[in-house]
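Progress note, sequence design subtask.
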């Protein structure tokens, strides 16, 4: 029987509940929601599974030691005392990142440096040789987390952030993070049972994440590498078995996923990324200006998009957001439209009353995910049926 251990899945603010649900559905034990993270328990195969299958996680950490710390020297001593030979060879490479929430320590880079010193000094003293630092492709990526006086040392099983799915070779001016895109679609409640549209699709991230959700395709199948593949206990057979089992749970999708963008370059990029993700059977990308389009057919439409915020694009935001409202109202009956924006002033010009507002962050920008319900005919007419 494989041994269970504790893990922490990190996520974006506002996605904790989604991640908690994902972990529970995958079969995690002792699931507990935190702020921007969810802790849980599972075995090595489950750690592989989480990295492959979780849509809203950005990292899976494996804590290996925790202690109270009173000074930089105390930190050095306690890290030096650990048995690092279980995780790394003296000829190996390492990288360290640190997050600090403490009045005792102020510089995360200094803490990372102190941790590195303790580890390499230990190897030099016991083996006569020391591991080197490799920030890009280390054999072991270590996470140091100090909260007030409590220090937790974890192994980073993911390596690069899990938003780097592996399908995106082309991006546009303001690409949306893949984890953020997946989380927005999940928060919108889309379940693959209706048509889906992103009317300002950019490089196609929202479309690809929607297709993977609809077909239950694990989001990180195309990643080149996870950090755990360089660990001493890496089990390639177990990993392939987990991968195969996840692939066996994919499902058919019988609706349409449509993307529009008015920039030909964005349309080309989106098509390229869709092809990379091998999802061209499900996704149709067209060169269209959303404001000049209308909904085709009577089928229910679910729309999720990321309009410009005015951060990097020089456009009249008030007029732009007013156009979003007009186009939805006049041309898209029978549509649930969701979009995220950090331009809270421009949002007032949509001219429609949102039925939901959810506070999120896009990178460091405080944002709102808003929902507008466009009824068939008038709203009054709907209730009188």
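Output:
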């Amino acid at each position: 029987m494989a041994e269970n251990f504790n893990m922490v899945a990190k996520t974006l603010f506002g996605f904790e509940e989604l991640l908690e649900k994902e972990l529970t559905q995958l079969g995690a034990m002792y699931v507990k929601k935190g702020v921007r993270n969810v802790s849980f328990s599972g075995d090595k195969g489950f750690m592989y599974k989480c990295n492959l299958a979780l849509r809203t996680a950005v990292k899976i950490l494996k804590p290996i030691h925790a202690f109270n710390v009173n000074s930089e020297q105390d930190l050095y001593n306690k890290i030096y005392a650990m048995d690092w030979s279980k995780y790394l060879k003296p000829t190996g490479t390492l990288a360290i990142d640190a997050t600090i929430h403490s009045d005792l320590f102020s510089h995360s880079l200094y803490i990372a440096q102190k941790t590195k010193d303790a580890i390499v000094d230990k190897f030099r003293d016991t083996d006569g040789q020391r591991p080197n630092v490799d920030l890009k492709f280390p054999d072991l990526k270590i996470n140091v987390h100090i909260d007030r006086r409590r220090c937790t040392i974890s192994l980073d099983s993911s390596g690069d952030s899990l938003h780097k799915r592996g399908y995106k070779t082309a991006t546009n001016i303001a690409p949306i993070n893949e984890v953020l895109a997946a989380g927005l679609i999940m928060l919108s409640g889309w379940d693959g049972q209706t048509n889906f549209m992103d009317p300002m699709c950019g490089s196609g991230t929202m479309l690809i994440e929607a297709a993977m959700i609809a077909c239950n395709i694990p989001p990180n199948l195309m990643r080149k590498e996870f950090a755990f593949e360089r660990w001493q206990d890496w089990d390639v057979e177990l990993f392939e078995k987990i991968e195969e089992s996840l692939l066996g749970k994919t499902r058919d999708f019988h609706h349409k996923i449509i993307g529009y963008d008015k920039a030909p370059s964005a349309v080309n990029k989106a098509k390229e990324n869709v092809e990379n993700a091998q999802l061209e059977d499900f996704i149709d990308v067209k060169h269209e200006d959303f404001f000049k389009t209308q909904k085709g057919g009577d089928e229910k439409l679910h729309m999720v998009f990321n309009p410009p915020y005015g951060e990097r694009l020089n456009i009249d935001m008030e007029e732009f957001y007013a156009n979003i409202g007009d186009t939805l109202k006049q041309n898209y009956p029978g549509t649930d439209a969701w979009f995220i924006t950090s331009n809270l002033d421009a949002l007032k010009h949509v001219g429609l009353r949102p039925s939901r507002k959810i506070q999120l962050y896009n990178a460091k920008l405080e944002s709102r995910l808003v929902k507008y319900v466009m009824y068939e005919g008038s709203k009054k007419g709907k209730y009188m049926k």
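The chain has two domains: 5-156, 178-218+254-379. Work on this subtask will continue into the next period as scheduled.
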